[in-house]
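Please, structure for the following, as tokens.
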Amino acid sequence: MNQNHVITIDQEVKFMNTQMKKPPKLLHKSAGMDSCCIFRVPQSLFEINREAYQPRIVSIGPYHHGNKHLEIIEEHKWRYLNDLIQRTGKSIGFFMKIIVSMQDQIRQSYSESIDQFSTNDLAKMMVLDGCFLIELFRKVGKLVQTDIYDPIFRVAWVSPFLMRDLLRIENQIPFFVLQKLFDVSKPEVSKPDDPTLSYLILEFFNYTVDRKKEILNQHKNTEGKHLLDFFRKSFINPKEQNPVPTFDISKNSFQKLIHLPTKLRINYSSSVKLIPPANKLKIAGVKFKASHEPDSFLDIEFRNGVLLIPQINMDDFYSSFFLNCVAFEQCYFHCRKHITTYVVFMGCLMHTSTDVGLLAEGKIIENYFGKDKEIAEFFKSVGKDVAFDITNNYLRHLFIELNNYWNGWNVSVDGIKSTYFPSRWASISVFAAFLLLSLAVLQTFYTIYPYYHPN
């Protein structure tokens, strides 16, 4: 055997042995654990709408740390950290030590390896980003003094971009980091009725979504894996936030995953199907109305032939929020898929601009996109390449009820056709008879009319 050939094989064997022992970096082993909750967007979703997942003015966490175009807010993070240090009288070292003690838990929260950050670098990032966020929420909540000339509040375009950036799936730090920094930076003398971190976060985003204070209070003790998950959960009824059952890796369970079709990948059942679009449901007699003062946009009902859907403002904030929530629900196994279900349901209703127009007439859709067609295309794109279990979701009963209503109407129409129009010639005969009857009525009218109106 050629000596060079032997050396080449030995080198390859050595390389392969080394590779086998290396832990994955792009999809870390921890990605399937409950603790792992901050993901890179899957390429299939990223390609559909790249801008929805990329921060525009602020970086939070390691994935986009150091990007040049995000330096505009980076400088203000240090200003906010200084405000917090001056107010609490605690040193930066105090906060650094707390975060260093949590670093293993922090690293396990990310689906990709963040080993490029040393212990100190990771702690510095978490302290800077975390303190910036909790100081921001305190300033907006009027718990601490705010500079009246602070550009974050005075420059009109900053706040909308900031709110969207804080709810991007790749732009997160663990909620337990925020909670810890919030707790240790509280005033030494606090009152029982002081707002919680969760309440302050909801109050911050309420400048965009404008929900009742009762709703904010209902979720004042709700927690999430990070800001995106927490805000997502604040729209879900607490009774429906039960943990997802442990994954069963039996043959049947695995088959459900690998046999899902492409595009909208749905786990079908004979008893539950997708619903027809709005214009077809209207023909069947379904009416569309906006719900009266719902607690959440998720609260959809079907009563007495009326589909009641909470009004939703389709704008840049909600479109970004939906896209990032769906991406999170697709990546994180241990959560209910409420936003995915909502998006699929609304996508079924709105196939075309005509469907969107019907919902707009019912005051359900407030269109800030511009054209109705853009909303229909948006929901189509969000639902693309999404795995969805139609047999196990919070709107399962609505899929069944609306299909039963639609099928009942179709049966009635088919019954009339089979009874009175059993063949093509029967249909032509009935049409001819109707035409002759119409002509006879017209002839009678024109015969009688001159008698009563001679002029």
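Residues 249-262, 411-420 have pLDDT under 50 and may be disordered. The first helix runs from residue 3 to 21.
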